[in-house]
Design brief:
256 residues, alpha/beta, binds zinc ion
């Protein structure tokens, strides 16, 4: 596979980087990323993931655009209020780069349907806002042997971690948070608030990590850093990280 003159021009600033190059750009065009949640994380992340030329995107969200989303969910505009986020997001990608292959799902994620959404993907980026969904996505990623980037944001704090619990010795997201959050909960930003640009920082950092994970086999952008969670602190501001070790008793990945 090679890039057409139009694609070479479009991605010139990637291709000139020795860490990516033409081979990296061709690799990105052949990747399939599943983006779960098209809110504060998913919306800015999608703009950079699509701009990076990731060839196949599956966009998952069952919400509709609300006026209060517009403070940070940069994909949407006033006319989109009341419309389904997945449909609007697909329309945006198609207008932005018609060469990308976009599939959407506007069903609510459950433990039963999430496996079909992630199977065969190269990477899942989860930016949803509740633990029950996050754990269902993580469990499906381990079962389907798909790496997971998990990103969250609230108030002035963000958190982005890469997980590959299907690999020996590597933690999954459940190793990180445990089993206490499987029930429906109310871990949303509605009560706490959030600085809009914090969502953008966490989202674009997640998009950067997504490109690093997808291109890790080529070597130019380093290791995927499985199990490393980055904490983004917008008040100091500061970026810290720590590493999650695999929990041998993890109900999802403890046996892998
Ligand atoms: Zn685990």
């Amino acid at each position: 596979m090679s890039l057409s003159p139009e694609r070479l021009d479009r991605f010139a600033r990637h291709i000139v980087l020795p860490e990516i190059g033409g081979a990296g750009q061709v690799a990105l065009a052949g990747k399939h990323l599943v983006l779960v949640g098209l809110g504060g994380i998913g919306s800015p992340a999608l703009q950079y993931l699509a701009a990076a030329g990731i060839g196949k995107l599956t966009l998952v969200d069952d919400d509709k655009v609300e006026a209060s989303n517009l403070q940070r969910q940069t994909l949407y505009n006033t006319r989109d209020i009341g419309h389904g986020k997945a449909v609007v997001a697909k329309r945006w990608v198609t207008g932005f780069d018609p060469a990308l292959d976009v599939t959407i799902s506007d069903r609510r994620i459950t433990a039963e349907n999430v496996g079909d959404l992630v199977t065969g993907a190269d990477l899942v980026l989860d930016g949803t806002d509740n633990f029950a969904t996050r754990l269902a996505v993580s469990d499906a990623c381990v079962a389907e042997r798909v790496p997971l980037l998990s990103a969250a944001v609230g108030r002035f704090q963000g958190q982005v971690g890469a997980f590959a619990g299907h690999l020996p010795g590597e933690a999954c997201y459940r190793c990180f948070v445990g089993d206490a959050f499987d029930a429906e909960d109310c871990d949303t930003c509605a009560e706490d608030g959030m600085l809009g640009a914090m969502a953008g920082w966490a989202a674009t950092f997640a998009a950067l990590q997504a490109v690093r994970v997808l291109l890790a086999p080529l070597g130019g952008l380093g290791e995927p850093q499985w199990g490393t969670v980055f904490l983004l602190d917008g008040l100091r501001p500061e970026l810290r990280n720590f590493r999650i070790t695999k929990d041998p008793a993890c109900s999802t990945c403890g046996h892998s």
